[in-house]
């Protein structure tokens, strides 16, 4: 265990200062939505006056996160979650947080196991994905993880689902009692989003007066089904001029580039990699598309709508149907259906952005969501403080 920033306690000096009121556990500084949400929650509670620890298994990842003044950051310095139990136990015994919130399946299993060993910390696990769908794609490994989740989530002191669909999937797939699951959406409509949307898009296609741009954002993995999106884009382009930009990195980059080449659209598609500010591009695109095979609550779909984009999404489990109010705010198409997605892209390019009611924005803004997390973590009310941010080093 190593303290990265915040506080004054030196490694090995147990009890040299009081511990936090709440701790957050995540695997890395990944560019995934779950990690971004955990940092935003930690910062939000710190800005309300709580003392907060954020614990990462290791510091790998492309993001340079900013942390509020009340957040101390610790690294367990382990290459994988499976090797981090002893380090997490050391952290819990030294810092003694009354409550610990973790996210993502492997990390959640680790958190519950460590919490049972120490017996002092309330452990709440946050499920950000339709895990039964995700685990079904990784064979016997997925079945083992599913079994461990079934045991761990039942033993947790609280379970948070990011959408009603995720809650139902856990109740059915993991045998959880509905009364043990609390649904709390992600606080993704933030000042960071608003500020980012006001900046100019840095990719040249968004301001070169050329063909309209269709945008997608996400890891280049099977889950995001960008292969289906590229096929649908190629089909749509036969009748509607457009270009496709996909921001994100992942293992399928070479396969997706080869697919675009084989379909004759490589000159009209760009894979620029990860961008720290997708919001400026969401605000500037002609259409945003979510092509996923499964999700939990797709942050990028919410963010694109909040930035004023027209949107098209697969009706995947789960989240898009809830976000789009059953299709009222954007087209929903079947998963893995190239023809339907192509038709929706054609129509979407000519539609006006949806008129979103204030209540829709309220559902994904931080204040009420932080109230809900404070309640599920058992945090006592504190007076609101004002803190500034500093960069992770």
Give the gist of this structure.
By secondary structure, this protein is of the alpha/beta class. Helices cover 37% and strands 18% of the residues.
Overview of this structure, please?
The protein is an alpha/beta fold and 393 residues long. The chain has two domains: 2-187 and 365-391, Rossmann fold (3-Layer(aba) Sandwich); 191-348, Rossmann fold, CATH 3.40.50.2000. The protein is built from 15 helices and 16 strands. The protein has helices spanning 33-47, 85-95, 105-118, 131-135, 139-155, 164-173, 191-198, 226-237, 253-262, 279-284, 299-306, 320-323, 338-348, 358-362, 366-376; strands spanning 2-5, 22-26, 52-56, 66-68, 71-75, 99-103, 122-127, 158-161, 181-183, 213-217, 243-247, 269-273, 287-290, 311-314, 331-333, 389-391. The strands form three sheets. Strands 1-5-3-2-6-7-8-9 form an eight-stranded mixed β-sheet, with helices on both faces. It has a six-stranded parallel β-sheet with strand order 12-11-10-13-14-15, with helices on both faces. Strands 4-16 form a two-stranded antiparallel sheet. Strand 6, helix 3 (105-118) and strand 7 (122-127) form a beta-alpha-beta unit. Helix 2 (85-95) crosses helix 3 (105-118), helix 3 (105-118) packs across helix 5 and helix 8 (226-237) packs parallel to helix 9. The radius of gyration is 21 Å and the shape is globular. The two termini are 17 Å apart.
């Amino acid at each position: 265990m190593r303290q990265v920033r915040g506080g004054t306690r030196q490694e090995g000096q147990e009890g040299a200062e009081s511990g936090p009121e709440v701790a957050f556990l995540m695997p890395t500084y990944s560019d995934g939505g779950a990690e971004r949400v955990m940092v935003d929650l930690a910062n939000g509670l710190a800005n309300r006056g709580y003392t907060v620890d954020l614990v990462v298994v290791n510091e790998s990842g492309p993001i340079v996160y900013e942390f509020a003044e009340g957040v101390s950051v610790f690294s367990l310095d382990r290459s994988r979650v499976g090797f981090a139990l002893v380090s997490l136990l050391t952290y819990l015994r030294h810092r003694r947080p009354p409550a610990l919130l973790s996210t993502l399946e492997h990390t959640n299993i680790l958190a519950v196991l460590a919490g049972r060993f120490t017996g002092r910390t309330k452990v709440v696990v946050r499920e950000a994905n339709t895990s039964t769908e995700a685990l079904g794609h990784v064979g016997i490994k997925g079945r083992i993880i599913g079994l461990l989740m079934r045991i761990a989530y039942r033993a947790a002191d609280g379970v948070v689902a990011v959408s009603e669909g995720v809650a139902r999937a856990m109740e059915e797939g993991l045998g959880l009692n509905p009364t043990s699951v609390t649904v709390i959406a992600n606080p993704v409509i933030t000042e960071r989003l608003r500020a980012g949307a006001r900046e100019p898009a840095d990719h040249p296609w968004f301001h070169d007066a050329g063909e309209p741009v269709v945008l997608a954002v996400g890891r280049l993995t099977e889950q995001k089904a960008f292969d289906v999106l590229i096929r649908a884009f190629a089909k749509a382009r036969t009748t509607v001029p457009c270009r496709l930009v996909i921001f994100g990195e992942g293992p399928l980059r070479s396969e997706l580039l080869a697919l675009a080449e084989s379909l004759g659209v490589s000159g009209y598609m760009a894979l620029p990699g990860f961008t720290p500010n997708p919001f400026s591009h969401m605000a500037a695109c002609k259409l945003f598309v979510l092509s996923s095979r499964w999700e939990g609550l797709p942050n990028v779909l919410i963010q694109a709508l909040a930035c004023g984009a027209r949107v098209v999404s697969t009706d995947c489990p789960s989240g898009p149907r809830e976000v789009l109010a059953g299709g009222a705010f954007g087209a929903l198409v079947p998963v893995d259906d190239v023809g339907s997605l192509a038709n929706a892209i054609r129509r979407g390019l000519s539609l006006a952005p949806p008129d979103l009611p204030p209540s829709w924005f309220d559902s994904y803004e931080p204040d009420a969501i932080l109230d809900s997390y404070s309640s599920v973590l058992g945090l006592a009310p504190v007076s609101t403080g004002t803190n500034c941010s500093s960069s992770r080093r």
